């Protein structure tokens, strides 16, 4: 409540929120209570000309809600007459326009003190340029807050067991643990010149590119002699000289051939001191652990040495908790760190396991942005995506921190091409790590598995369980990839279903797009 020595009264309520719904009306209600309390004070304690001047001021200015972090409502919603928004606080000229229109120009005989204006400029314009109040600031702050190491994770890092089966939901830090452990071992090997060899295997190629670059960057490019990263498919090809097929049965057959080749020692094969296998839930059959045991030095011993198996225990994924392999002693991570609470509350709808999962921090994060204006065709869909990307860029979010996620590779390629036509340069997940260019990422949900992005724009996600049997798997993968800020573009019905308690529609024949194997 600003009160000058000339009986000038200016009620102001400041809100740090980034959206108007709910917050603006709450602030207006509080302003009304404050004014009523002030009126009671004036009636009880003042009289004569002073009281008349104060009554006039209370009547003249209804009060203002200042939301310097919140863009002005657009579209069909008219700008609230008593609101001061992000656009009004961009610079001195913008603030002066608001001041002259809403305050100084409201018929009064006594001019406002210039010092009062300067104070407000310093408070709302100066601070807006001095502190993180933009969308990018919130995302960066949330990202830093989620980078943590728990006692549970530290225990895994320091554990000396020869073989570890590490389970946990997406976001619990499995891949982070793998990276830290590999770097720890590699640095020791390089310092001691031990000639130890480390093999890191994953299922997804974009994750392979990310891991390769991470190790190369942290070891100054000196990885070839110590750390070797491969996809599971390329490893099988190296051992059998044949590409595994697309079906589970064909893949199991290829694994059996690789195991047989190692047992018979039909060729000279590199063996390793340490082996790390990520994304085990995507591997087929029950012989792949034998494959890695045979690749480990000391494979002829009763207990093979130094192997880590990491996998997600969500029952909607390939390797369910009932799988016989998972009856082995394992270390279970049940705490999620790599999502904000807003993202976690949505993604946990698609996780099912005997063991419950919990959030390991108090970072609420930005609310999910629901866009129910999904166009009927991809051409207009790309334009819809472009609007969101441009808004993020205006808020100083780095292009490479934005990932547009699609149902499959075919849609990814179409959206990527149309975005380029509309002036949005973009890249896929592999290019992100290979070139390190600051471009928006466009990728299919499956190919982004194992990676994460600060901002995810999820385009036209499936939500019908009946027409797509693996809808929960796909939604779980997509949502858990989001680190800080999630935007979902779908239909009004899609918004309603996804926001429901179940998160999917169990009985519907809505049209959908079939998901390709990426």
UniProtKB/TrEMBL annotation:
A single GO molecular function term of this UniProt record: 3'-5' DNA helicase activity
UvrD-like helicase C-terminal domain segment(s): 440-488
UniProt-recorded name of the protein: UvrD-like helicase C-terminal domain-containing protein
Record's GO cellular component terms: cytosol
Organism: Stylophora pistillata (Smooth cauliflower coral)
Alphabetical GO biological process terms: recombinational repair
């Amino acid at each position: 409540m600003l009160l000058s020595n000339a009986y000038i009264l200016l009620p102001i309520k400041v809100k740090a929120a980034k959206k108007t719904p709910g917050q603006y009306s709450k602030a207006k209600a509080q302003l009304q209570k404050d004014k009523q309390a002030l009126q009671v004070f004036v009636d009880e304690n003042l009289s004569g000309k002073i009281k008349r001047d104060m009554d006039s001021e209370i009547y003249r200015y209804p009060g203002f809600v200042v939301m310097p972090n919140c863009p002005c409502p657009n579209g069909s919603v008219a700008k609230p007459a008593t609101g001061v928004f992000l656009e009004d606080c961009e610079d001195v000229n913008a603030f002066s326009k608001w001041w002259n229109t809403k305050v100084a120009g409201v018929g009064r005989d006594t001019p406002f003190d210039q010092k009062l204006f300067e104070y407000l400029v310093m408070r709302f314009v100066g601070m807006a340029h001095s502190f993180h109040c933009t969308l990018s600031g919130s995302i960066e702050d949330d990202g830093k807050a989620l980078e943590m190491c728990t006692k549970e994770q530290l225990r895994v890092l320091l554990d000396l067991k020869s073989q570890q089966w590490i389970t946990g939901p997406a976001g619990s830090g499995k891949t982070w643990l793998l990276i830290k452990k590999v770097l720890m071992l590699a640095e020791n090997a390089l310092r001691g010149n031990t000639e130890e060899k480390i093999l890191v295997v994953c299922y997804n190629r974009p994750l392979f590119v990310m891991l390769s670059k991470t190790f190369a960057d942290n070891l100054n490019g000196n990885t070839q002699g110590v750390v070797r990263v491969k996809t599971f498919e390329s490893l099988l090809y190296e051992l059998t000289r044949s590409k595994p097929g697309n079906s589970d049965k064909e893949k199991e057959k290829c694994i059996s051939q690789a195991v047989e080749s190692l047992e018979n020692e039909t060729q000279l094969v590199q063996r390793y001191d340490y082996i790390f296998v990520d994304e085990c839930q995507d591997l087929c059959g029950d012989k792949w652990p034998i494959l890695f045991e045979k690749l480990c030095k000391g494979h002829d011993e009763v207990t093979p040495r130094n192997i880590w198996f990491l996998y997600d225990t969500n029952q909607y994924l390939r390797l369910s908790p009932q799988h016989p392999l998972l009856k082995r002693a394992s270390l279970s991570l049940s705490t999620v760190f790599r999502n904000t609470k807003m993202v976690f509350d949505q993604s946990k709808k698609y996780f099912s396991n005997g063991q419950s999962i919990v959030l390991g921090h108090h970072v609420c994060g930005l609310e999910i942005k629901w866009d129910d204006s999904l166009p009927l065709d991809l051409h207009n869909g790309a334009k819809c995506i472009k609007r969101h990307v441009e808004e993020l860029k205006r808020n100083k979010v780095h292009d490479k921190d934005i990932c547009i996620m699609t149902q499959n590779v075919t849609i990814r390629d179409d959206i990527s091409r149309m975005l380029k036509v509309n002036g949005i340069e973009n890249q896929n997940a592999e290019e992100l790590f290979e070139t390190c260019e600051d471009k928006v990422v466009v990728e299919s949900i499956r190919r982004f598995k194992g990676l994460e992005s600060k901002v995810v724009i999820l385009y036209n996600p499936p939500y019908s369980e009946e027409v797509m049997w693996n809808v929960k798997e796909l939604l779980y993968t997509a949502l858990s990839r989001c680190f800080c800020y999630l935007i979902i573009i779908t239909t009004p019905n899609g918004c309603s279903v996804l926001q429901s308690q179940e998160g999917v529609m169990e009985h519907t024949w809505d049209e959908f797009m079939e998901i390709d194997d990426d």
